[in-house]
Amino acid sequence: MATKKETPAHDPVNHPAHYTFGGIETIDFIEAKALNYRMGNAVKYITRAGKKGSFVEDLKKAIWYLEREIAQHGKE
Description:
Blueprint: H1 17-20, H2 26-32, H3 37-48, H4 55-74
Helix pairs in contact: 2-3, 3-4
């Protein structure tokens, strides 16, 4: 007899819903791509946009991190 797969309980610390949406956790993607802090945070804010707070605010935060990344590369 097959058993029904249980849905994991809500875990806001280890697996928050706004980071697990879409079947892959954002941290797993960031680590797989070996993104640095600024790039990883940009991805984090893009992938959670509108799921925890303001959609536009999250995108502005992503832009802030991307602008810092661009500025860092301008120094090279």
